[in-house]
C-alpha cells in the first residue's frame, strides 16, 4: 500500500461548517472512496484552515484520484464542497492536493 499525505486550505470563515459536513459524509461518497481503494482515509485541520489528509491506496495518488473522477457522486460532492476551499484558479479540491513526501514510517 502506498501512504499518501496531502494538504489543502479550507476557508477560515467556512471552517466550522466544513467540519460539520464531515460529521456526516454522504454514505454514497464513503462507499465510492472505499471502492476506489482509499483506505484509512483521515482529515486533520488547524484553526486557520490548513488541512492535512492521509490515506492508503494500492497504487498512487494519481490513480486513486482518477478512479474517483469517474464517479458521479464525487462530482456532486466536489461541487458541494467547492465553496469551502481557497482556490486561486477555481480548481476542485480533489485537483489541488499538495502531495507530501513521506520521509519516515514506523511499522
Would you give an account of this structure?
Helix content is 33%, strand content 24%. It has one domain: Alpha-Beta Plaits (2-Layer Sandwich). The protein is of the alpha+beta class and 107 residues long. The protein has a 4-stranded antiparallel β-sheet with strand order 2-3-1-4, with no helix packed on it. It is built from 4 helices and 4 strands; from the N terminus they run E-H-H-E-E-H-H-E. The protein has helices at residues 15-21, 27-35, 61-69, 72-81; strands at residues 2-9, 39-45, 50-57, 98-100.
Question: Top keywords for this entry?
Answer:
33% helix, 4-stranded antiparallel sheet, 4 helices, 107 residues, Alpha-Beta Plaits, single chain, alpha+beta, globular
Task: Provide a quick synopsis of the model.
By secondary structure, the chain is of the alpha+beta class. It is 33% helix and 24% strand.
Give the termini separation. 13 Å
Q: Mean pLDDT across all residues, rounded?
A: 95
Structural class: alpha+beta
Q: Tell me the domain tally.
A: 1
> Residue ranges: pLDDT <50 for 5 or more in a row?
none
SSE map:
Elements: E1 2-9, H1 15-21, H2 27-35, E2 39-45, E3 50-57, H3 61-69, H4 72-81, E4 98-100
Antiparallel strand pairs: 1-3, 1-4, 2-3
Amino acid at each position: 500500500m502506498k501512504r499518501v499525505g496531502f494538504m489543502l486550505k479550507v476557508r477560515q470563515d467556512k471552517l466550522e461548517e466544513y467540519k460539520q459536513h464531515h460529521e456526516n459524509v454522504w454514505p454514497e461518497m464513503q462507499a465510492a472512496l472505499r471502492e476506489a481503494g482509499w483506505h484509512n482515509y483521515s482529515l486533520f485541520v488547524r484553526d486557520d484552515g490548513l488541512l492535512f489528509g492521509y490515506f492508503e491506496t494500492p497504487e498512487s495518488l494519481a490513480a486513486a484520484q482518477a478512479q474517483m473522477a469517474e464517479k458521479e457522486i464525487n462530482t456532486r460532492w466536489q461541487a458541494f464542497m467547492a465553496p469551502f476551499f481557497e482556490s486561486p484558479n477555481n480548481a476542485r479540491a480533489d485537483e489541488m492536493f499538495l502531495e507530501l513526501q513521506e520521509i519516515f514510517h514506523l511499522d
